[in-house]
Amino acid sequence: MTGSTTSKHRYRLFLARNSYAMIVHALLEEIGANYELNWVEIFTDTPDPQFKAASPMARVPALIGPDGPLFESSAIALYLAERHPDAGLTIPSGDPRHGRFLQWLSYLASTLQPEVLIQFHPETYFDDIGSQQRLKKASLKRLVKILDVIEVGLNPGPFFFEKKRSICDYCLALQAIWPEIFPGTISDYPNIERLTQAITARPAVRHILSMH
Ligand SMILES: N[C@@H](CCC(=O)N[C@@H](CS)C(=O)NCC(=O)O)C(=O)O
Q: If you measure from the C-alpha of residue 59 to the centroid of ligand 1, how many angstroms do you get, rounded to a whole number?
């Protein structure tokens, strides 16, 4: 898959379907980057060696860019947004909103994401089903509080920074499309729902989602 050629460098994205790699895939498409996709198998004892070299825990996404390989979706998102400022997806240092931009980016990666991962992969914590179920239940309770903070933070919306889109919006929307992360349904969180609908309706995002 190739985006337009606004940047000379051809990125290479290691990705798996319906995974955190969607965030980076969407951003590459959104910024019109020149990129190629390298679909890999995850949760395997024998990961693709090139993928493992780029991502030591064999987790997606990993991106090979002009400065070498990178892993961690939010770090890659920030890297791309800063490298492609014309896309307008970052809030640069010096802008009074910069601190809050970093706050939400970090919150989505380090507070929301671990609970989301537990909902899908409790077996990476416990072998027995009973413990897995208890973990998921406890984690769902934590998700209630975490989602409440995001819901309030999205006032007035529709994005984290009102009408200005940023990578934070992609990092949230491409986790919030998984219904499993909501104790009820996404409709209980109208601000999160509105943001997710707005981001996933974008042509670039619809295009990449059709591949996942
Ligand atoms: N913090 C990482 C999490 C990446 C992650 O856990 N990705 C999952 C797929 S959604 C994965 O590759 N799991 C394979 C494994 O844990 O072995 C990021 O944001 O990039």
A: 4
